[in-house]
Write a structure and sequence with these properties.
Layout lengths: L6 E6 L2 H11 L3 E6 L4 E5 L7 E6 L8 E5 L2 H6 L1 H7 L16 E3 L4 E7 L5 E7 L10 E3 H7 L2
Parallel strand pairs: 1-4, 5-8
Antiparallel strand pairs: 2-3, 3-4, 6-7, 6-9, 7-8
């Protein structure tokens, strides 16, 4: 019955600045901005396929996590520089002070993390080809290439 995730919503402290971040830095497209509520909706990728809602709330923000699908080559070769160029600190799942993308072997998927201006944890993720190997745990892409069957 369920075939995917259509939308998710997060709280932000400054709607205008958050819309600028998600559109100008991450490249999402503004779908609707409602100053009366205040809320904004952004298309993720192709219009009307997936959406992010930003709800302004000045206090008691609840931080969330969500992941954006990305190209594997972007994550491997460009994501860290892209994030650094936008004053965003990339980190891996292990939070071991490294910006090296990690592979979740059970999926398998390659991922790198960063936080938005309100501390929401964002992830860039690419599903890898092949079968998952959960026994390998969370490893670097280089280790994945060496160990995969």
């Amino acid at each position: 019955m369920i075939t995917g995730l259509y939308e998710t919503h997060i709280q932000v402290s400054d709607l205008k600045k958050s819309v600028e971040f998600y559109t100008q830095v991450l490249g999402l497209t503004l779908a609707h901005y409602d100053e009366n509520r205040p809320i904004a909706f952004l298309w993720i990728g192709e219009d009307k396929k997936a959406m992010l809602g930003l709800w302004e709330q000045a206090e008691n923000l609840q931080k969330r996590h969500f992941a954006f699908s990305c190209d594997k080559e972007f994550i491997l070769n460009s994501a860290a520089c892209f994030l650094n160029d936008h004053h965003l600190k990339p980190y891996n799942f292990l939070k071991n002070k490294s910006a090296t993308p990690m592979v979740f072997s059970w999926m398998p998927a390659l991922a790198i993390y960063f936080d938005d201006r309100d501390g929401n944890q964002l992830e860039l993720i690419s599903i890898l080809e092949g079968d998952g190997q959960p026994e390998l745990g969370i490893i670097t892409y280089e280790e994945w290439l060496k160990l995969k069957r």
